[in-house]
Amino acid sequence: MKTASISVAKNRLSAYLDLVRAGETVTITDRGTPVARLVPFTSVDASDRRRELERHGVIVAGAGGRALDALLESEPPKPAAAVDVVALLAAERAEGERCARGPTP
Q1: Max alpha carbon distance in the chain (Å)?
Q2: Distance (Å, rounded) from C-alpha 4 to C-alpha 17?
Q3: Rounded to whole angstroms, how far apart are CA atoms 5 and 13?
Q4: Per the CATH hierarchy, to which homologous superfamily does domain 1-42 belong?
């Protein structure tokens, strides 16, 4: 496994991608601390994805493994209607500012 700092990886990205295409793994570090890993892309099925999520502690293994696999294989649902996320965020911030000021006299 190769290791490279962010600046070296940035300058030699094509060379590191060639290594990854050849099956190697490259770890990217920031001041000696690993922050990312370049790995060869392989198609991942739902059970592999579930095991990865379990390994990282995002989910806990349970009895419904097959149901979870089916959920992970499906596309996430689309919103029912177009939503202006920026307007919602602005309204939420305005409400938070009103709450922070307290009741008006």
Answers
A1: 70
A2: 12
A3: 11
A4: YefM-like domain (3.40.1620.10)
Residue 58's pLDDT is 81
Q: Which pLDDT score is estimated for 98?
A: 72
Walk along the chain (105 residues) in steps of 10 and give the mean pLDDT of each run.
92 93 91 91 71 81 68 73 83 80 65
Helices 46-55 and 65-73 meet at what angle, rounded to 10? 110
What single string gives the DSSP state of each residue in 31-69? TTEEEEEE-------HHHHHHHHHHTTSS---S-HHHHH
* Alpha carbon 70 to its chain's center: 20
C-alpha 102/C-alpha 105 separation (Å) is 9
> Domain spans of the chain?
1-42, 44-97
